[in-house]
């Protein structure tokens, strides 16, 4: 579960960047896996999500947000939850 204490205040300005996301019109299932999804099917879905993220004008903002709130699920900012955990661990170790 995400730590909501880390979320910005519920102001429109805090989330306004999301209006410019390439994912705004995409199916959310592209970014969040079903409980039973594994292996090649999961990797293919994540690859498709990352492809959409790669052309997103708010990619960096999205990734910063996911790292700040420690988002535990889905593809955010072009990284999976596992990739974000590795990235955050590397940033802490540096």
Fraction in beta strands = under 5%
Helix percentage range: 40-55%
**Which structural class best describes the helix and strand composition?**
mainly alpha
Order of helices and strands: HHHH
Number of β-strand runs: 0
Distance between the termini: 26 Å
Helix count equals: 4
Low-pLDDT windows of residues: none
Rg result: 13 Å
Specify the biggest β-sheet.
none
Description:
By secondary structure, the protein is mainly alpha-helical. It has one domain (11-93). It has four helices and no strands. It has helices at residues 12-15, 39-54, 59-69, 81-93. The protein starts with 11 loop residues before the first helix and ends with a helix. The model has no long low-confidence stretch (mean pLDDT 89).
Summarize the structure.
The chain is mainly alpha-helical and 94 residues long. It has helices spanning 12-15, 39-54, 59-69, 81-93. The protein has one domain (11-93).
List keywords for this structure.
single chain; 94 residues; mainly alpha; globular
Helix-strand blueprint:
Elements: H1 12-15, H2 39-54, H3 59-69, H4 81-93
């Amino acid at each position: 579960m995400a730590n909501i204490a880390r979320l910005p205040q519920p102001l429109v300005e805090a989330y306004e960047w999301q209006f410019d996301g390439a994912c705004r019109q995409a199916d959310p299932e592209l970014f969040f896996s079903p409980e039973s999804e594994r292996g090649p099917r999961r990797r293919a879905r994540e690859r498709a999500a990352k492809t959409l993220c790669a052309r997103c004008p708010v990619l960096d903002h999205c990734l910063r947000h996911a790292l700040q709130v420690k988002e535990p699920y889905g593809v955010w900012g072009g990284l999976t939850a596992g990739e974000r955990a590795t990235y955050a661990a590397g940033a802490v170790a540096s």
